[in-house]
Amino acid sequence: MEKVFRCPGRHGYAVEVSPFIANRLACASSQYYGIAGCGTLLVLDETETGVALVRSWEWGDGLFDVAWSEANEHIVVAGGGDGSLQLWDTANHSAPLRVAKEHTQEVYSVDWSQTRGENLIVSGSWDQTAKVWDPALSQSLTTLRGHEGVIYSTVWSPHIPGCFASASGDGTLRVWDVKSAACRLAIPAHKAEILSCDWCKYDQNVVATGSVDCSVCVWDLRNVRQPVNQLLGHTYAIRRVKFSPFSKMMLASCSYDFTVRFWDYSRNQPLLDTVEHHSEFVCGLDFNLHIPNQSKPDPTLQGESDAEVNPATHSQEWVVDCSWDETVKIYTPACLSAGTHSTAP
C-alpha cells in the first residue's frame, strides 16, 4: 500500500530514512522549485494509516539535501541555497543548533560518515568544493578542490574510513582521501553532468553514477576503463541513485522523467521495475534501512521472525521518494516484495 504525505507549496529535493528509528524520515524541500523563496525541513513518521508530520522547520533559503547523524538519533544536517549547513535537533523546536557558512554558493549535498569510530560530515557545493566538518559543524576540517564544475553529490564510503566519492557537472566521479586531503581517483564517468553517486553497501570497490545523459553507470574502482554495467531506460536526467541495503546487486534511480526504477546490475536485462506515481521531477529517494531484529544491514544475516516488530512498520523492505509534485511517498515496489528478487542472472 502506498502512503502519501502532501506538503503544499514545497518541492521535495531529498529524503533520508533515520538509521535509528525504523519508521522515521527527513525531507529537505524548497519553495518555487528551489529557484527562490524559503526551504522547509520535514521530519515524518510512517504510521499504520499514512505519514505523520513530527516536526518542521523553516529556513530562509531553499534546502537541497539532508542527512541523519550516525551517532545521535535526534540530529540532522541540511544543506541550503545560501551556502550554509544547518544542524537541527528534533527535540528542539525553534532554531538550528548550529549554522556553518563557508561555501560561497548552494550546498547541494550533505552526508554523515557511517564507518565505525568516525563521525564526520561532508558537503558538496556549486562553488566546486567539498568540505569535511566535525559533527558539531564548528569549522570545516578540510576543503577539497579539483572538480571543474559544480558538485552535486558527496557520499562517504560505508567501508573505507576517511574516504568519500563526489559527482560533478564536469562529468567526473572522484574519490577522495580526507587524511591526505587528496583526490585518489578521477573517473571521466559520463560525457554529461553527473547529478548523483552512491557506494555499494556490500563491495567497497563498487560505485554507481547517475547522469543527465539518462544512464546509470556501475563502476569497479579497480578497473575504471569501462563501467561494469550501463543501466538504460530513463528518458530524462537521473537525479539520484541509491544502492539497496539488503540486496547486493540492487540499486534504485529516480529521474526528471517522473519515474523511479529498480535495477539488478548483475543481469544482462537489469531493469527490475519502473514506478510511475509522480507528476513532476522525482528528486529524493531512499531505502528503509530496517528489517526485523536487525538494526543495520548485514549481508551475512537473513531476516528473522517479525513477531516483535511494531505493527506500524513494514516487515518487508520499503522505499521512500519525494518529488516536485509536493508529495513524499512510501511504498514497496513489486520487485521488493518477498522472494521476487533472486540473485539469478
Question: Can you describe what's shown?
Answer:
The structure is a single chain. The strands form seven sheets. This protein has a four-stranded antiparallel β-sheet with strand order 1-28-27-26, with no helix packed on it. A four-stranded antiparallel β-sheet has the order 2-3-4-5, with no helix packed on it. Strands 6-7-8-9 form a four-stranded antiparallel β-sheet, with no helix packed on it. Strand 15 and strand 16 (172-177) form a beta hairpin. The model is unreliable at 292-314 and 340-345 (pLDDT under 50). It starts with a strand and ends in a 14-residue tail after the last strand. The chain has strands at 3-6, 11-17, 24-30, 39-46, 51-59, 63-68, 75-80, 84-89, 98-101, 107-112, 121-125, 129-133, 140-145, 151-156, 163-168, 172-177, 182-188, 194-199, 206-211, 215-220, 229-232, 238-243, 250-255, 260-264, 271-275, 282-287, 319-323, 327-331. It is mainly β and 345 residues long. Helices cover 0% and strands 48% of the residues.
